[in-house]
Amino acid sequence: MGPMSATGQRRMRTGDWGVVIAPALLGALVCLPALAGRSLWLDEGATVSIVSQHGAALWRGIAHDGGNMLVYYLALHVIVGLFGDGTVPLRGLSVLADALSAGLVAALALRLFGGRCAALVSGVLCALSVSLVFWGQDARGYALMVTAAAAAFLALVGVVDSDPGTPVPRGALLGYGLATLLSLYIGFDAVLLIPAELLCAWVLRRGLRELIAVLLLVALACLPLVLLALQRGSSQLFWVGPLSLSALGQTLVTVLSAGLPPNFHVTVVTVIATVWAGVLVLVATALALADAWPRLAVRRPRSDHSPAAGALVIVPTAWWLLTALLTVAGSAAGEPFELARISILVIPAVSLLLGWLLTGAGQNLRAATAPARTGHPPGTRLPHTRGVAATLLVILLGLRVAVLLPSYAETPEPWKQVAARVLAARQPGDCVAFYPEDGRMPFAYYVQHTPGGSARAPRAVLPVAAWSARTPHVEEYVVPSPRRLGDWLTGCRRLWLIASHQGSAHGTPTSVHNAAGYRLLEAVLSRAYLAHRASAEGYAAVIHITLYARPAAARRAGSA
After folding, report:
1. How far is 487 from 153, CA to CA, in rounded Å?
2. 295-314 CB burial, b ≥16 within 10 A, e <16
3. For residue 142, what are the contacts with CB-CB under 8 A and spacing of at least 6?
């Protein structure tokens, strides 16, 4: 055991670094398979297009997203400038973020629970979360947002667990402020964690006023971000539907690291892993509340502002429980929250609770069950509980591995395959159109990374742009007039219409409008061309490919 603070919590020492570094290495390792093989999807295509800009064009691309992921875009812009825009450099920052998240969770467990075994298990569970691994292999800012959130909670524990009778550590306050500011400049959703952080400080009776002061400074520093967000509005979230049982189910599976629907297929293993982890999380939450509440309820002198020994388990409990409740309540009130993506913010907290339960289950179950079931006084050691906890842990780890391994072979939105197919079947006089125009970004990425691809690709007519261009086309649902479209189609003997995220007749009003635009575009093209053939690729967001041919080329349409 390492040296103890006055509050009963461990301080890091040399021997503890192994249980922090090991989960971090595992977190990086599990993100490497299929890192370059899985196709970029639509949002990753937007990332590439935005970070490839320079100067004012880069700022316009970031501002168009309302400032969301601002720091992530800037960091990736530097990485692309240094190492190029290959798939590995694009996703490397997310791999690093996943590794750091697992290490931070282990460090948090050391500080909260005081045991290396709990730290190692918590960090490993975080590293093996299929939900975090997916975003760790993705050129988006979600993995880095989780890292910043975990860092903020680690600093928070430094505040609420500081020695009584002394000022709150300035280093912990500074770390909390910087980590919170970073998380907000990566993703607006991180604001949902702040109520849980303040609740922890209030319940543990330490550092609340200081944290509020720091958060006021953070709010001032976020004013430029707020102005960008207000200027952009919430229109970019038109695709987020209202709260539903389906959305809640996907969120539950994500939080429990049992899968990531709709990106990965739901299987029998997904269901078993969801039920198994769900039961363990419920038990852990109930035991954590039962364990912490009596300690917190003890009356102590007003001068003693330190948390009671063992009460720090309330931190991960409040982290996941209050954040989940606020997110669901906001979604029910009509706020456009994408629950499955936001929910990854609480996966570190769930990992901490599971690590606490499955390595300290003997102690917790002894206290809960010994008086009632065995006649022994509270705290009596029950020999079988350690073996039970180890068995539960082995099964949980086995299920996580069983869910994770097949995910490497899945490509839910295969723009790489679509680009290869069109390039292989291209004929003289072919043109290509995208609805929405967003689809051009991942398609163009693979055209540019295919030898001779720009010369072989069909002429782009919607949007009209050279294949060497990297202009962002984010949420551009364009339906040109028949006359204008006719001008663009001059010389196009065949037309490839590629559509994805084209809207839904059962979605939000904007989605319904976009879907109507797609049907109108199809009707116009059907009148301009006498033959067509439709097919589809992928499943998370299906990519629809329709080849239209004029009479002279109609006989060859079927062979494409």
Report:
1. 58
2. eeeeeeeeeebbbbebbbbb
3. 94, 135, 187, 341, 344
Q: How far apart are CA 16 and CA 519, in angstroms?
A: 61
Sort 500 into a burial class: Cβ within 10 Å, 0-12 / 13-18 / 19+.
buried
Cis before 262? omega within 30: yes
The pLDDT tens digits of the residues spanning 71-115 come to 999 999 999 999 999 999 999 999 999 999 999 999 999 999 888
Q: Report the amino acid identity of residue 111.
A: R
Q: Where do the structural domains in the chain lie, given as residue ranges?
A: 14-407, 415-557
How far, in Å, CA of 410 to CA of 433, rounded?
A: 27
362-384: per-residue pLDDT in tens? 455 444 444 444 454 444 444 55
By the 10 Å C-beta count (0-12 exposed, 13-18 middle, 19+ buried), 320 is classed as buried
Q: Which residue has the tokens 């039970």?
A: 388
Which is nearest to 366 in space by CA: 353, 379, 384, 383? 379
Determine how many CB atoms are found less than 10 A away from the CB of residue 110. Answer: 27
Single-letter amino acid code for the residue at 108: L
Which pTM does this prediction carry? 0.90
Cβ distance 257 to 347 under 8 Å? yes
Nearest to 486 by CA among 431, 448, 539: 431
Using the CB atoms, write b or e for 261-284: b if 16+ within 10 Å.
bebbebeeebeebbebbeebbebb
Contacts for 294-297 with beta carbons within 8 Å, 24 or more apart?
A: 296/203, 296/204
Query: If 0-12 CB within 10 Å is exposed, 13-18 middle and 19+ buried, where does residue 452 land?
Result: exposed
Work out the pLDDT band at 6, boundaries 50, 70, 90. Answer: very low
Strand partners of residue 546: 497, 534
